[in-house]
Write a sequence for this structure.
């Protein structure tokens, strides 16, 4: 156990930088998306939104993916593309992880400034949290936790309580990593978060444990009785 803790401890600082970088930093997230050679995504013109809306409603993943790449590109240029939120959020349910990831980025970007729009996505995220695919469950949990809409914190807490006991270590690690973000969103749930942190600190998986240690250092660095 001592060796496990030492190994996890060495990862804490590195993970801390990675996690903080991923929270709400759209430009960093864009680094994982290949838009090289896709100059068309940055082009503007009359009727652009109508074309994008049609692509988002397209039955093919190709059209949806093309539309989402264009929207993310426009966002990086500072364009307001929030009017397409209803059309975008419908695509949370697609099977393609590449499209789903872009949809999550879009929702996270606009959630804080458009909380009413963000509420449209909650039911879709909750459905994804019940997916048999652990990657989908983890991504949905991360997206919900990064939305920065305090009115849905109680729903995030409910999902977190399930996630800390998830059969997948990847989902549990994600749960450990997002605890500080949820605390910043609404600190009145700190008691619940500490209880979940206690569970995660007892996890046998070194990656889950390293995430839990990071959150421990952020939430309660002096609470040694956990």
């Amino acid at each position: 156990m001592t060796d496990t803790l030492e190994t996890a401890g060495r990862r804490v600082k590195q993970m801390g930088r990675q996690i903080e970088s991923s929270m709400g930093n759209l430009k960093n997230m864009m680094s994982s998306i290949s838009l090289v050679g896709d100059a068309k995504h940055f082009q503007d013109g009359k009727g652009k939104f109508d074309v994008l809306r049609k692509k988002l409603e397209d039955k093919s993943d190709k059209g949806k993916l093309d539309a989402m790449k264009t929207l993310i590109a426009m966002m990086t240029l500072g364009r307001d593309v929030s009017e397409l939120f209803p059309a975008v959020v419908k695509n949370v349910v697609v099977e393609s992880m590449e499209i789903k990831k872009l949809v999550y980025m879009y929702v996270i970007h606009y959630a804080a400034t458009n909380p009413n729009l963000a509420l449209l996505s909650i039911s879709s995220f909750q459905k994804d949290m019940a997916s048999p695919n652990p990657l989908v469950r983890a991504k949905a949990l991360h997206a919900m936790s990064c939305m920065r809409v305090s009115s849905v914190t109680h729903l995030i807490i409910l999902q977190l309580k399930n996630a800390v006991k998830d059969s997948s270590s990847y989902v549990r690690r994600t749960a450990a990593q997002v605890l500080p973000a949820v605390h910043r969103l609404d600190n009145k749930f700190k008691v619940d978060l500490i209880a979940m942190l206690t569970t995660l600190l007892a996890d046998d998986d070194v990656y889950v444990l390293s995430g839990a240690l990071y959150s421990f250092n952020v939430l309660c660095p002096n609470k040694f009785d956990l």
Observations:
- The two ends are 16 Å apart (CA to CA).
